[in-house]
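Researcher: Next entry: Nodulin-like domain-containing protein (Populus deltoides).
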Amino acid sequence: MGFHQTSSISFSATKWLGFVTAVWVQAISGNNYTFSNYSDALKSLMNLTQLELNNLSVAKDVGKAFGLLAGLASDRLPTPVILLIGSIEGLIGYGTQWLVVSGRIQPLPYWQMCIFLCLGGNSTTWMNTAVLVTCIRNFRRNRGPVSGILKGYVGLSTAIFTDLCAALFAYDPAKFLIMLAVIPFAVCLTAIVFLRETPPAATIEEEKEESKYFNIFNAVAVIVAVYLMAYGFIPNPSHAISLAFSVILLVLLASPLAAPVHAFIKSWTLNRFKNQADVERQIQEPLLIEEKAQEEIQEKPAEESASAVVEQPQAVAAVEVKRRPVIGEDHTIFEAMQTVDFWILFVSFLCGVGTGLAVMNNMGQIGLALGYADVSLFISMTSIWGFFGRIVSGSVSEYYIKKAGIPRPLWNAASQILMAVGYILMAVALPGSLYVGSIVVGICYGVRLAVSVPTASELFGLKYFGLIYNILILNLPLGSFLFSGLLAGFLYDAEATPAPGGGNTCVGAHCYRLVFIIMAIACVIGFGLDVLLGIRTKKIYNRIYMSRRSKKLAAASNLQ
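Model: Predicted structure:
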């Protein structure tokens, strides 16, 4: 017993080191949300209309549609290979954009730029798939916190890149793009070494230990978010302050290494006493062990014969009828797509993330239309508050499943109705409404992402989760095309006036008012679908609650 506990804790040190590198990958894999930081440079350099610019953004999001390849690969290739593919794609996609914006090469034809933006967008699907699938399998008893923390750092990545670029390069779009190309490549090479699939927690004690570590990760993430937000409000920081900010930020991002270090020290301490404990147990309990061994020898034939009798009719039944899996069991992608619950989750996810992406992709033009010359603060606020939505919803939804069996989709429903309120605020365009609206949209978009990931794994299982997850996030390019490329692009161009030298521009609240109203209606539809899914899945979440409750009661009775 002592040896097993020591070896499992030693193994957990490696598991936590892999989780730290996963956090780092997620902290740099949100580069898809940074398009607003350099979109104006592309628009002026290539003389694009708003519709053409929005379609470039759609091309970036279309890269996620090819995430199906990453989903298929996640069941066949090891995690390091998937990470390597994503890092190389990002280096090529963003590296080419840097060459264009920096003036090192002439602007490429429009269709070629679409391809390279697509490559950059697709790179994140390989990174996210490798990280999410591996970590949810490693920590399957704490799926909510895992999803919240990892998706939270994706939300923070926009603010991390934006603030680092502002601190070091004064918002230079060319230098920003070289950061997007090089930093993710280097971080993924680190994760390739340490991130592996490991056995999940097997006991209540290990599950509680995981929860303690996740609380530490949550606390560190909140500190990083508050720190980034505070820096955003410093007016015209000096070079020294900017440099100090960058150094402290890197230290904060490295601080989660304390978790695997603590696990390693704990393992080393227990190893010191293992030999002595084994000797004492051999001296004190030889007769008990011998008697137990004899009983096992006598009982084993009877157990084997009984299991053979039970297994034989089961095998015959399996040959006769192949039962379709029910919700809560492992589904293939085709079995999942034959269920009503999958399509309810899919469409409600589209209503939330599609409209949220439209705001993020167009935040630069939205801010300019409402009279804000510098929109970097709104971009950072959307990112940071999106982080709070992700990290809080992941832990809170997990807590209430364990506490009362509350269906996870109900948290999505709450975020959808709140997001609709945010769009109405931005449509009204009162003074300060863009501040409030960007915060509300960021929070709700974060909730939507963090809660939908574990929901899909709980309803359709973990065996084919990589592919199911990538089918689900097809909503990102689809939503970007519908709400950003078509809706926002056409309605903006209808309100805009031609600009000298090509392109167009629009100033005033009317530019995006109808866009916000339509997106608010879409969120109300998503709210209704999420409530319906919560009602339909109440039984499965009640079973999860009862199962965990019975395990806790059994563990408590064993201690008595």
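Model: Note for the record: Strands lie at 497-498, 504-505.
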